[in-house]
From TrEMBL:
Residues 33-191 form the HPP transmembrane region domain. The lineage of its organism: Bacteria, Pseudomonadati, Pseudomonadota, Gammaproteobacteria, Oceanospirillales. The chain crosses the membrane at residues 33-55, 61-79, 86-105, 125-144, 165-186. This is HPP family protein. Keywords: Membrane, Transmembrane, Transmembrane helix. The keyword Chloroplast does not apply. The keyword Acetylation does not apply. It holds the Pfam family TM_HPP.
Length: 197
């Protein structure tokens, strides 16, 4: 598995460098350094673009679990967890489970846990949201680990309003679209939806 992952990573970097006519970089520098630079530029640029959308719209387009998603999309783009299906469905499940947990424990109008501190109802909401998210991702075969963080972001009250959930999903979709373009430019058979290209 590790050898196959390394081959995909080399193909990713090599393909993109060929597209940009910069093949000499892969010959001159250590492949790990080139891959690190690739992730620095693409992960940073993708998150910066989404943060710009948040700035312009003054909406919550940027949230912590997008960072982990960006890492997967540019580091292991052909892994099942990085497929558009898993990324989008995983974050939707996480957001909905977090929101349902807030309602179940009467926290839908409560300030975020970082403001009020953690109480027993918040402990229950956080535990339930993560447990449900994990179970549903397994049942629906859409495992995406960063979605667990999305469940906690919602259940801890950072994004607790229902109208924020479409914005959250739009941000994830924007990140997936960027990954699709960049990975395809690099010659990686990044899938259109499921785990297979």
């Amino acid at each position: 598995m590790s050898e196959q992952t390394d081959q995909v990573r080399q193909q990713l970097v090599g393909g993109l460098l060929r597209q940009l006519h910069l093949e000499v970089l892969s010959q001159r520098f250590n492949p790990r350094l080139v891959l690190a630079a690739f992730n620095l530029v693409n992960g940073g640029l993708s998150i910066a673009l989404i943060a710009m959308v948040a700035l312009v719209t003054q909406q919550a387009f940027i949230f912590p679990s997008l960072g982990a998603t960006a890492f997967l999309l540019f580091h292991v783009p052909t892994a099942d967890a990085a497929s558009p299906r898993n990324v989008l469905c995983g974050h939707i499940i996480g957001a909905l489970c977090g929101w349902a947990s807030l309602w179940l424990f009467g926290l839908h109008d409560a300030p975020a846990a970082f403001i009020t501190g953690v109480e027993w109802s918040r402990v229950a909401a956080a535990g339930l949201s993560l447990g449900l998210t994990s179970a549903l991702m397994i049942l629906f075969r859409v495992a995406h680990p960063p979605a667990g963080a999305t469940a906690l972001i919602v259940s801890l009250g950072l994004m607790h309003e229902l109208q924020q959930l479409p914005i959250l999903v739009s941000a994830v979709a924007l990140l997936v679209a960027q990954a699709f373009v960049i990975n395809r430019l690099a010659g990686i058979p990044y899938p259109v939806w499921g785990g297979k290209p």
